[in-house]
Amino acid sequence: MGLQNCGLNIDAARRELNPHGTSEFPCAGYLCRLSDLPTDAIIWHRHEELEIIYIQEGTMKLLVPGEEYHLVKGEIALINSDILHYAIGDPFCELHSAVFSHVLVSGGNTTAFYKKYVYPLLAFPGFTVWRTGRQDWAEDFQAAFSALETDAFACEFTVRERLSRILLSCFQAFAPQLPTQRSEKNTDTVRIERMLEYIHTHYFEPLQLSDIAQAADLSERECLRCFNRTIGDTPVQYLLKHRLLRSAAMLHSMPSASIAEISAKCGFDHPSYYTKQFRRFYQCTPRDYRSQRV
Q1: Are 126 and 176 in contact (CB under 8 A)?
Q2: Exposed, middle or buried: residue 194 (CB in 10 Å: 0-12, 13-18, 19+)?
Q3: How far, in Å, CA of 234 to CA of 226, rounded?
Q4: Fewer CB atoms inside 10 A, N or C side of the chain?
Q5: Both 166 and 53 in a single domain?
Q6: Shared domain check, 139 and 46
Q7: Residues 148, 82: one domain?
Q8: Residue 264: which domain range?
């Protein structure tokens, strides 16, 4: 079975498009090493699957809208389904993660496991990230990850059993607060998702703050507040970073395009300004970045 590659493929709504595992066994393991450079970060994204992160070495900063976690060696974080999240070294970490469909544990949407335990947990708006440093749960995760990594005998049984234990522990932690019916996302989450989707769809256009705010029917002032509350950045800075990330991908995927052409395709008015901002973000020029990765 082995581990999957860590690369992200996301759509305009920040939903990850790559499959995690297979339809027969919907779970995948990942190993990533992150520094505190923005270029090493796991950018904002979300997926329908749950994700468990274990810090093997170092310290990591995990962000979800409105919350920030500093995870240290030996800690586990369980991220709920469809939650926007971002990760970066603090200043360095090696993380092991398992991304899995609830079906792996529940067996489907009609089972008692889903109706009594999994559904109430997925539906609970208070569960975005569950964090623990308990040694027994860390051992459960390590056993599951090792089975995935080595493709051990009957690894599917080991992975399902160990991840089920962790998910049940999370359910027990939240049990007194869990609803019986699915709750709606909070207002800030809905707004930020609409604005991020707008940026990712129109980043190459000459966007203004007012355009981004209008995507969520907000005033510019409330737009700024919403970004600050949820992802800790301004809309304009987020737009700039996204344009730079898109341009870096194009430098690799479009080797015959000039720096000026890529600059224009990513919404920059002047190549000189683009080069200046690229150098600040990547600590090298676009030309050097391209040549280093040829």
Answers
A1: no
A2: middle
A3: 9
A4: C
A5: yes
A6: yes
A7: yes
A8: 187-292
What is residue 208's three-state secondary structure?
A: coil
With beta carbons less than 8 A apart as the criterion, state whether 260 and 254 touch. Answer: no
Q: For residues 102 and 121, what is the distance between their CA atoms, to the nearest angstrom?
A: 11
Same domain membership, residue 242 and residue 276: yes
Q: For residue 229, what are the CA distances in angstroms to 115, 180, 208, 222?
A: 33, 28, 20, 10
pLDDT score of 213 more than 90: yes
Exposure b/e, 143-153, CB count within 10 A at least 16 = b = bbbbbbeeeee
> Using one digit for the tens of pLDDT, what is the confidence trace for 79-136?
999 999 999 999 999 999 999 999 999 998 889 999 899 989 988 888 999 999 999 9
Residue 9 lies in a domain: no
Verify that 101 and 149 share a domain, yes or no: yes
Say if 1 falls within a structural domain.
no
Instruction: Give the whole-angstrom CA distance, residue 267 versus residue 206.
Output: 6
Number of residues written out for the chain: 294
Gap between the Cα atoms of 106 and 120, Å rounded: 12
Helices (H), 22-153: 103-106, 112-113, 119-123, 135-150
- In terms of DSSP bridges, do strands 50-64 and 67-72 run parallel, antiparallel, or are they unpaired? antiparallel
Angle in degrees, CA 243, 261, 208, rounded to 5: 40
Q: Cβ atoms within 10 A of the Cβ of 247, count?
A: 25
Q: 210 falls in which pLDDT band (50, 70, 90)?
A: very high
> Cβ contacts of residue 103 below 8 Å, gap of 6+?
26
294 or 135, greater pLDDT:
135
Counting the structural domains of the chain, the total is 2
Kindly report the CA angle at 273 between 282 and 247, in degrees rounded to 5? 50
**Is the domain of 58 the same as that of 124?**
yes
pLDDT in the model for residue 113: 94
Q: What is the CATH number of the domain that holds 166?
A: 2.60.120.280
Residue 159: name the closest of 4, 20, 26 by CA: 26
In a domain, 41, yes or no: yes
